[in-house]
Amino acid sequence: MYQLICRRCGRIEDVDRAVGETTCLGADDGSGFRIDEAEVTYWGLCPACAADRDASHRSTAQL
Ligand SMILES: [Zn+2]
């Protein structure tokens, strides 16, 4: 489970599958934990806010 959270408007998107090939379920390293779910949260800007930000701060640094 991945969550994308917009810092600006608070919009939350749940993503069931990994974006790209990164997976965090490889932690079966002898700790004894049987991991059945990993949740990763990405903070950033949703498309609408990113577009709005781009429009108003066209040449400033990225997040
Ligand atoms: Zn947003």
Automatic annotation (TrEMBL):
This is Fur family ferric uptake transcriptional regulator.
